[in-house]
Amino acid sequence: MPRITSVESPGCPPLRAITTDILGLVKVVEARARPAGVAKVVETWGEPDASRAILVASLADRAVDPVLALARKNGVVELLNPLNGDSLAAVKASGQEQTDGAVENDPIVALHLFKKHAPDLSTLGTFLACTEKGKASVRSVAKENTVAASDVGPSSTWDVCSTGKLQFSSLDAGENYAMFGGNGMEVNLWDITSCSKIWSAKSPRGNSLGIFTKPWFTAGTFLCKDDHRKIVACTNNHQVRLYDTSSQRRPVISVDFRESPIKAVAEDPDGHTVYIGTGTGDLASFDMRTGKLVGCYVGKCSGSIRSIVRHPELPLIASCGLDSYLRIWDTNTRQPLSAVYLKQHLTAVVIDSHFSTEESEETNSKQPDPSMVAEATIRREKKKKKNIYVEEEDEGTQVVDGDNNDGETVRKEKKKKKMVAEDDEGIRIACPDDADAKTVKKEKKKKKNRRVAEEEEGTQLADPDDSDAEMHTTKRIKSGEKSKGTKKKSKKQQVA
Question: What is the C-alpha separation between 74 and 346, in angstroms, rounded?
Fold first, then answer.
């Protein structure tokens, strides 16, 4: 079972990293929050295909027209736009004469995309590719022939080694010298402009028993940007060696680090520190001035580390490997800042140093979502309707009176007038002529007189002599109440 340690990560500063894996996918990881945020997968380019697995990647990190180069398993070098993932060109690394079987037996193991622009700006990029059998080639890709996938301009090919297997290549900051090394071959230095070897290392002396170890170099880099004569090479025998090409062929400093082979190395801009990653997931930094271990990084990886890259400005490094994690570390505290699980075995990682959160926010604002646009239009329409209704009300109040209080009173008076007008209209509809209205009133009065007369006759029949009874009966009839006395009199009336 792999060893896994859980360490809390505080988050990393704004960062953009691009990773490649064994299924041919390119994944973009970004951290946008300030001052520290969680790194997340933003985009995934390509389709999973094991036959097009990405072996090596290189980024021409420029502020204008950056290009990303990918070396695939089928022997094709593909140029992409690292901002949106558009394919710019696809070129055969070592010519069109190779068959599929030859490509599988001699895959690309090293790739470097030159950062310098062509003088006439007619090319997309120039790259150096090296195969496992030691065939190195420098090719340029023109903008006009990107569809035809043909290479134009200056191109050269040479053999780096006759025996052994090439495993790594590295170029200096000036991109004039290249270093090569591998299994069964010593480290050697080449001049790219003349395609000639200028230096070759010599194996160290044997041990106390007189046994010489077979050369097997797995990674290497130039220590200083200004000086191409100092190089650092790492071996499969867990050694870190420093060579000075101007003084001697044997290593000046050789340091052992634990017991696993070293698979990746990266230099620091300070000119004396290097970062190494082993096959068991250990990450450490060395000071090559003295050869002492500066420290190991907290949080062991659970798989072999295959790529390490140092940010040119921020104090952090990014590492990836066979544990399918992209990890970002702080070089000052050697603490992990963030870790992203990317599902596949990772082969390489590069960092876009010109990334800024302001640019990403501007692009997002320029291309809003359609749902947001629809909501905004609906809100605007509602606001327009409300404004129109308010303006109509304001116009009505201004015609009546300029003050708001007067407008309210006027509105109430208008409502009352409307009610009265409606009542009058109803009456007019019922009785359109005045004469008819008078006749109706007279009939109503006659009916009332008849009722009163009937009531009076009823009281006289009940008891004509009793005046008090008349008074009581009239009052009771008006109030609509009945008492016991009236009930008795009504019985007497029935007897009479």
Answer: 18
